[in-house]
Amino acid sequence: VAAVHFTGGSKIATLSSANRAVSRFAEDFPDEIATVVRLTADARTAFLDIGRGRIGIVHGIGDCFLTRIVTPQDVAVLNTEDANTVSFRLADFTWKGGRFQFASAADALGLLKALEPQRSNSTGETA
User: Fold this and answer.
1) Has residue 52 been placed in a domain?
2) Helix-then-strand count for the chain, H and E
3) Environment class of 15 (CB within 10 Å of its CB; exposed 0-12, middle 13-18, buried 19+)
4) Which is deepest, 49, 82, 87, 116, by most CB within 10 Å?
């Protein structure tokens, strides 16, 4: 147990700010630009709006960060537990998602709306 602790195994990766989340995401996805960043209340996860219906994720696992880009099509299950909490399950087997609590109900709602299935414009109108 001591060896795990002294090698950093008992550390928990957290994001000190929205800027830190953007910086960490850019390490893996340097061409993506975040327009909105939503940090969870425990600072372990950030959700970044990166355009074209995509969400960037920076999530602490142990002392490291996992990064992903997801779309509403990647979400198998999406729920709200209360005004500040969103939970989802991804179809991706490498990371299933989880339960995410925000300090702000607006951030939770923003993530919920971003991950909801998009309705296509089926009116058939042309420009």
Assistant:
1) yes
2) 3, 7
3) buried
4) 49
Structure tokens at 103: 């300090």
C-alpha distances (whole Å) from 37 to each of 2, 58, 121 are 36, 10, 27
User: Do residues 110 and 38 make contact, with C-beta atoms less than 8 angstroms apart?
Assistant: yes
On whether residue 110 sits in a domain, the answer given is yes
**Residue with tokens 């090698």, as numbered in its chain:** 7
Contact 108, 86 (CB under 8 A): yes
Per the CB < 8 A criterion, the answer to whether 38 and 28 are in contact is no
Q: What is the pTM of this model?
A: 0.85
Q: Kindly state whether residue 126 falls inside one of the protein's structural domains.
A: no
Which 8-state DSSP code applies to residue 17? S
Within-domain flag for 22: yes
Kindly report, residue by residue over 38-84, the tens digit of the pLDDT. 999 999 999 999 999 999 999 999 999 999 999 999 999 999 989 99
Tokens representing residue 33 in the block: 């630009």
